[in-house]
Specification:
With 851 residues, this protein is mainly alpha-helical. The chain is 65% helix and 4% strand. The strands form 3 sheets. It has a 5-stranded parallel sheet with strand order 4-5-6-3-7. A two-stranded antiparallel sheet has the order 1-2. It is elongated. The N and C termini lie far apart (91 Å).
Length: 851
């Protein structure tokens, strides 16, 4: 590596030394009074001039490249420094896991206060109650320990205040205490850390409330996460938390997308891909074992003792967060105006408004949750008094309250944040449920929310099947210049079939730098308007922003257009982001180019990600290219265990060739049960070979009913052997109508035996025209018997041309009957010389007769 960096400079030093020699040589000759011819001196000087002319631009180019590299390095350093400055730090250094215990910084819910203990007497943490071990702790910590060697992503999924964040924190503190803890405030900061080349080795990346990192215009891309996880020599751990409802929404693809072929990118594609990279752990209701472990700590922490006296269906973590008191304050409010502002903030959050809800939004929504008489008696200060009531703590000490004021600047309230315990509380006893949020409430929210807030509000409306509200929200955001909203509008119109409107908004978003819009615009142009050059242009722009799926699609398009080198370049770049489909396609391309080692390398890398298709292809590669049947068997088995049907089928075939009938039977059966008709067909053969005609009949019938022509033909043969002529005729006819020439021939035979010469002639003709030699012969024979000697001669000739001995003999006989003895003898002579013994015998008989 070091030599590669220095090599360009050696390329410059060589000419420089040569230049010094040739320019100094004449002076040296003169000083030493050496007898050099004038022409030689002139040549040396000229050579020096040429070298100078060549060397100068080389130096300039290398200097410019060095300057550009230095500039880029400085920009990356500045980017890294700016990102690091946005992280919690201690004396300018990133915190270690063991040094972090700030509840608010970690995002852990505030707990009820320590009862009856003065600050000077406190031994326990006033912020964090004693931790009660959860049922998932052992598995979670085992996974973290294993992933500490290679890196990985774990995600805790559970309702509000169930203890997800505390569980995650305790796990990393127990397993990775000396690792650095990166706590990025948003997806953009984490992306900057990665792209700037910041060393994240032995670091934990804290993604509490993971949805905040994977949504929005500055979202964390799947390609960035893959890049972080791809380098196993620099292991890092990502750990996040998310609510089940949000998790399910983000993993739900939008209607009209084609994930497998990457022909569409829906609103949540990146988020879904990120979440699918994680090892998921679920936390829900507290188990009996967890409550028992809590009871063991009642003498250690009075807060646990206090909660256990009022144990209910609500979990310990929620009770420690004062969930019952918060819910009671909201549901049984003695202040209707206070209840209305809590409901307003809760509804705004359920509609995906950002955490801080401004006062105008709360006021507009709260009015809709007040009865007419309540609005009538409201005083001038109703809103201020209601907010004060809602912000009152539910305990005499501590700060746990339904609402809390929030502001970025000192002394300034930007809005209010509602406890997520209330946002997640959707029982029938709640003042409002999600289903009760009517269109009028949505419209009011869109009207009063900021354009920035309208982007996530529109997304939520879209996923609860309110496209009109979604469009209105996104339009407000788009008109304010928010590129993500422009993209969403384009996507909405695209799914509604309005290609021109979609193209307009995609274009605006793309020109504003939204890479997803560039990608989808390429899709729209190629797949709906057949504009491959336009698609290539936009996919390339998206690819250059780092959009891995655009790189992949661009490579596919280039390959289809014959630009193999361009395809290889972009597949490589997409593969470098950790995208297994791109690794696989790159391997296939290299395989086609004869680059066997390169193909094997990328097939292996793709297979190592767990991508079943790549395991299957690598198995084929090992078996066909390198005759490594043992390696192929291993890879087929791995792929088959991921559910890859083709691998199950190929494994069955491989085992069958190795005389492992039981293994073949097992894998053929699994493939057949997964719908593979080839496996059903082969199972029929396997059972038939074993004399199990009922098993053969069963599997051939399943394959035949699934459309396998060969199985229809074989099933017809089997039924014919069993005397079921009508059943045979039915399946032969279906196979024949599907284009099977042998079935056409058998049908012709069957009809001929039944005396239906017209039907036989029709099927013999179709089979003969499809190239079936025996059908040609039988058709010739049938026509001869019907007196159509010219037709017979035509088909005997065509059958004879395929090497059919009987056709050669019959054609000769026909020629003799027509007086063309010479033609017959010539025909038979050629066949005899070609080694046909039957024709030679017939020819001998004729010759003897002539003698």
């Amino acid at each position: 590596m070091r030599w590669r960096k220095l090599r360009p400079w050696f390329a410059l030093v060589g000419p420089l030394l040569a230049l010094l020699v040739v320019t100094a040589a004449p002076a040296g000759v003169k000083a030493g009074e050496l007898p050099w011819p004038k022409w030689l001196v002139a040549g040396v000087v000229a050579a020096g001039g040429v070298l100078l002319a060549v060397w100068t631009p080389l130096v300039q180019a290398r200097t410019d490249a060095l300057a550009a590299r230095t500039t880029r390095a400085a920009e990356r350093d500045a980017q890294a420094e700016a990102a690091l400055n946005r992280l919690p730090a201690l004396k300018g250094k990133v915190l270690l896991v063991k040094d972090v215990a700030d509840r608010a910084l970690l995002g852990i819910h505030e707990a009820i206060p320590l009862p009856g203990v003065s600050a000077s007497e406190q031994v326990l943490s006033p912020e964090l109650p004693t931790y009660v071990l959860r049922d998932i702790d052992a598995d979670l910590r085992t996974v973290l320990e294993a992933r500490s060697k290679t890196g990985g992503f774990v995600l805790l999924v559970g309702p509000a205040a169930v203890g997800k964040t505390r569980c995650a924190y305790e796990a990393i503190r127990a397993v990775l205490p000396h690792w650095r803890l990166f706590m990025p405030p948003d997806g953009a900061t984490l992306t900057e850390l990665v792209t700037s080349g910041t060393n994240l080795k032995h670091s934990v990346v804290w993604l509490n409330e993971t949805q905040n990192f994977v949504t929005g215009s500055d979202r964390l891309r799947a390609s960035t996460v893959r890049r972080m996880l791809a380098d196993t020599t620099r292991p890092l751990i990502l750990i996040g938390t998310i609510w089940p409802s949000v998790y399910n929404q983000l993993r739900t693809p939008a209607i009209g997308t084609d994930e497998e072929n990457d022909d569409g990118q829906d609103l949540n594609k990146d988020a879904r891909e990120v979440l699918e990279l994680a090892r998921r752990f679920s936390l829900s209701r507290w188990s009996d074992q967890e409550w028992e472990r809590a009871e063991e700590l009642i003498s250690v922490d009075p807060r646990i003792n206090q909660v256990l006296r009022h144990r209910s269906h609500i979990g310990l973590a929620q009770m420690l967060s004062a969930a019952p008191e918060l819910i009671h304050r909201w549901e049984q409010a003695d202040n209707p105006f206070g209840q209305a502002v809590i409901t307003a903030a809760t509804v705004a959050r359920r509609c995906s408004h950002p955490a801080t809800v401004p006062v105008p939004v709360i006021e507009a929504l709260a009015k809709q949750f007040l009865a007419g008489n309540e609005r009538a008696i409201a005083g001038e200060e109703w809103l201020t008094e209601a907010l004060m009531w809602a912000c009152r703590p539910v305990h005499n000490s501590g700060d746990i309250a339904p609402l809390q004021a929030f502001g970025e600047s000192m002394g300034q309230v930007d809005g209010y944040q509602v406890s997520d315990i209330l946002v997640d509380h959707e029982t029938q006893s709640a003042p409002i449920t999600q289903e009760q949020i009517n269109p009028t409430v949505w419209e009011s929210l869109v009207e009063w929310a900021t354009p920035e807030a309208c982007l996530p509000i529109g997304t939520r409306a879209y996923y609860v099947d309110m496209p009109v509200i979604a469009a209105a929200a996104w339009k407000r955001a788009a008109d304010a210049g928010i590129a993500g909203a422009m993209f969403n509008l384009g996507f909405l119109l695209d799914t509604q079939g309005e290609a021109e409107g979609a193209r307009t908004w995609y274009t605006r978003a793309a020109e504003a730098g939204e890479s997803r819009a560039m990608f989808n615009l390429g899709n729209l142009l190629l797949f709906k308007q057949d504009d491959s050059e336009g698609a290539r242009t936009w996919w390339q722009r998206a690819a250059e922003t780092g959009e891995a799926v655009a790189m992949h699609n661009l490579a596919k398009l280039m390959n289809d257009q014959g630009d193999v080198e361009g395809a290889r370049t972009w597949y490589t770049r997409a593969a470098d982001t950790g995208r297994p489909e791109s690794m696989h396609n790159l391997a296939k391309l290299m395989d086609d180019q004869g680059d066997v080692e390169g193909a094997r390398t990328w097939y292996t890398r793709a297979a190592d990600t767990g991508y079943g298709v790549a395991m299957f292809s690598l198995g084929n590669f090992l078996r066909v290219r390198q005759n490594d049947t043992d390696g192929a068997r291993t890879l087929y088995t791995r792929a088959a265990n991921t559910g890859h049907t083709g691998a199950m089928y190929n494994l069955g075939k491989l085992l069958h060739t190795q005389d492992d009938t039981e293994g073949a039977l097992s894998w053929y059966t699994r493939a057949a049960d997964a719908g593979d008709t080839g496996a059903m067909f082969n199972l029929g053969h396997l059972f038939n070979d074993q004399g199990n005609t009922e098993g053969a009949r069963t599997w051939w019938q399943r394959a035949a009913e699934a459309g396998d022509t060969g199985a229809m033909f074989n099933l017809g043969n089997l039924l014919d052997d069993q005397g079921d002529v009508e059943g045979a005729r039915t399946w032969w006819q279906r196979a024949a109508e599907a284009g099977d020439a042998s079935a056409m021939f058998n049908l012709g035979n069957l009809l001929d035996d039944q005396g239906d010469t017209d039907g036989a002639r029709a099927w013999y003709t179709r089979a003969a025209e499809a190239g079936h030699a025996s059908a040609m012969f039988n058709l010739g024979h049938l026509l001869y018997n019907q007196g159509d000697t010219e037709g017979a001669r035509t088909w005997y000739t065509r059958a004879a041309d395929t090497g059919d001995t009987d056709a050669v003999i019959n054609l000769g006989n026909l020629l003799i009957s027509q007086g063309d003895t010479e033609g017959a003898l010539t025909l038979w002579q050629r066949a005899a010389e070609a080694g046909d013994t039957e024709v030679a015998a017939a020819l001998s008989t004729v010759n003897e007769a002539e003698v």
